């Protein structure tokens, strides 16, 4: 049985004061009791990892972890501005998002680079959250499954059995930050397609991999999405910035 995993992604938002309020509010809310068997995390901007690590450790909830939003594809070296997976590990991260569509769009990341990043994250004992998803044009021209299959195939080619220790986040680009959530059935259909594709490679990997949905998840649509058999949780952007909304989604 795969656990439900809900991960907030603050993207490039936050400051020292608001981060502290957020973590303290979420911890207080979670201390009141959460549905059993779930895992939660928040992926914060790199400069705030140490701060948020200390705040999360202070509340010592075994089911709440810290995550990062990207890692270098290299272990160390002359890569100005990049952050190595080993550094993220030292700062308390359990999860690292790789290949978010905003990294693909603004930093021209390729599937091959994303797979190398995932390997670095795995080699340092953390869980990569590998993002895939199609654009509105690709869906409108009926190519959504083909596009996502090609992204997944490139991950399989590099990661092989190690995919069993990764999470995949299906995030249709047309649903990110737009308020246009994929219907639960549209999301389920793509999650199913991803799982079937993984099963073509290895049935054991397919049954173990958690596939999260991301794209305009809100407290009022989370229950229906998370009830789908192949949706194993969510990657939450905008709604994770509000501690009460994030808590409500975690409790959905
Ligand atoms: O990483 C999160 C996704 O990009 C979803 O963002 P959103 O919830 O603001 O649509």
Automatic annotation (TrEMBL):
Pathway: Carbohydrate metabolism; erythritol degradation; Carbohydrate biosynthesis; gluconeogenesis; Carbohydrate degradation; glycolysis; D-glyceraldehyde 3-phosphate from glycerone phosphate: step 1/1. The keyword Isomerase applies. It is an enzyme of class 5 (isomerase). Substrate binds at residues 9-11, 177, 216, 237-238. PROSITE patterns: TIM_1, TIM_2. SUPFAM superfamilies: Triosephosphate isomerase (TIM). GO terms for cellular component: cytosol. Keywords: Cytoplasm, Gluconeogenesis, Glycolysis, Isomerase. Its EC number is 5.3.1.1. The keyword Cytoplasm applies. One of its GO terms (molecular function) is triose-phosphate isomerase activity. One of its GO terms (biological process) is gluconeogenesis. It comes from the Bacteria. It is found in: Cytoplasm. InterPro entries: Aldolase_TIM, TIM_sf, TrioseP_Isoase_bac/euk, Triosephosphate_isomerase, Triosephosphate_isomerase_AS. It catalyses: D-glyceraldehyde 3-phosphate = dihydroxyacetone phosphate. HAMAP family: TIM_B (MF_00147_B). Belongs to the triosephosphate isomerase family. Homodimer. Involved in the gluconeogenesis. Catalyzes stereospecifically the conversion of dihydroxyacetone phosphate (DHAP) to D-glyceraldehyde-3-phosphate (G3P). This is Triosephosphate isomerase. It comes from Polynucleobacter brandtiae.
């Amino acid at each position: 049985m795969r656990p439900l995993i809900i991960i907030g992604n603050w993207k490039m938002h936050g400051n020292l004061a608001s981060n502290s309020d957020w973590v303290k509010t979420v911890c207080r809310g979670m201390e009141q009791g959460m549905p059993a068997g779930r895992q939660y995390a928040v992926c914060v901007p790199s400069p705030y990892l140490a701060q948020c690590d200390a705040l999360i450790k202070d509340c010592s909830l075994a089911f709440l972890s810290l995550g990062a939003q990207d890692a270098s594809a290299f272990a160390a070296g002359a890569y100005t501005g990049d952050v190595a997976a080993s550094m993220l590990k030292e700062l308390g991260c359990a999860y690292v998002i790789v290949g978010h569509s905003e990294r693909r769009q603004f930093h021209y990341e390729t599937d091959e680079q994303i797979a190398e990043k995932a390997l670095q994250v795995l080699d340092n004992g953390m869980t990569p959250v590998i993002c895939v998803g199609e654009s509105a044009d690709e869906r409108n021209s009926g190519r959504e499954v083909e596009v996502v299959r090609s992204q997944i195939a490139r991950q399989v080619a590099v990661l092989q059995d190690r995919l069993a220790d990764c999470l995949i986040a299906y995030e249709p680009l047309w649903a990110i930050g737009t308020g246009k959530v994929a219907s639960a059935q549209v999301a389920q259909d793509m999650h199913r397609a991803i799982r079937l594709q993984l099963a073509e490679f290895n049935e054991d990997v397919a049954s173990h991999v958690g596939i999260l949905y991301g794209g305009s998840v809100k407290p009022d649509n989370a229950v229906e999405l998370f009830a789908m058999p192949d949706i194993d949780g969510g990657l939450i952007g905008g709604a994770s910035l509000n501690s009460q909304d994030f808590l409500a989604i975690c409790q959905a």
